[in-house]
Write a structure and sequence with these properties.
Number of strands: 0
Helix content: 55-70%
Distance between the termini: 27 Å
Structural class: mainly alpha
Strand content: under 5%
Largest sheet: none
Shape: flat
Length: 208
């Protein structure tokens, strides 16, 4: 389902590195590495994204919403359920369809005259697309060693840890929330200082 909402696309030509070693070349090298991380990114095979989705479903969603979502996923996991949901004969489950067929199925839910179908489409879109552009991936040791250059990770601000940035953020040159520019110790200190004010802030927030 995530692939149908945010599918991978063909990469444009990769930036070329200049042959002469200058300071600006380091910037270009970082851009090329960010380019490779972005275009090689695949939501369906990203362990961090899958974990974020599972965590959101099992721990973050209200119980009634979680129950309805799991029921919907169960229906989409078999041919009979897909046929009943889409009002169209299906010979296999949703996951085995081609990308074009999965996009067609979601569009059918989106354009359905039945309110429950449109509600299901909007719920899936909010959950999967929202997480796609907000989760933080967990890099592997190879990326970690290459990016840190031997620095102590705990002392580094997150903006200097590209393997810990959402790949869409990095490609847009967005370093993440403001806390990402702070060291972990400074971030923890500011959180501690702000805790006495949490109650007042929460009381001013309207449930929209």
């Amino acid at each position: 389902i995530a692939d149908a909402f945010v599918p991978g696309i063909d990469a444009p030509p990769e930036p070329t590195l200049p042959s002469s070693p200058r300071l600006s070349d380091l910037v270009m090298t970082n851009k090329v590495e960010a380019y490779r991380r972005f275009w090689s990114h695949d939501l369906a095979t990203s362990p961090s994204y899958i974990e974020a989705v599972c965590t959101a479903i099992l721990q973050k969603l209200p119980s009634d919403v979680r129950t309805n979502l799991l029921r919907l996923l169960r229906v989409m996991s078999n041919p009979l359920g897909c046929s009943a949901l889409l009002c169209y004969p299906c010979a296999s489950s949703f996951a085995s369809w081609s990308l074009e067929d999965r996009v067609w199925a979601l569009q059918r839910l989106r354009d359905s005259p039945l309110g429950k179908h449109r509600e299901a489409f909007c719920g899936l879109k909010r959950l999967l697309c929202g997480l796609a552009f907000s989760y933080v991936p967990v890099g592997n040791e190879e990326d970690h060693d290459k990016s840190t250059g031997g620095e102590d990770e705990a002392a580094m601000p997150k903006s200097k840890q590209p393997w810990k940035l959402n790949p869409y953020w990095e490609y847009m040159s967005y370093c993440g929330p403001i806390q990402s520019s702070l060291s972990p110790n400074r971030d923890a200190e500011l959180i501690r200082r702000g805790m006495p004010y949490d109650f007042a802030v929460e009381g001013a927030i309207l449930d929209v």
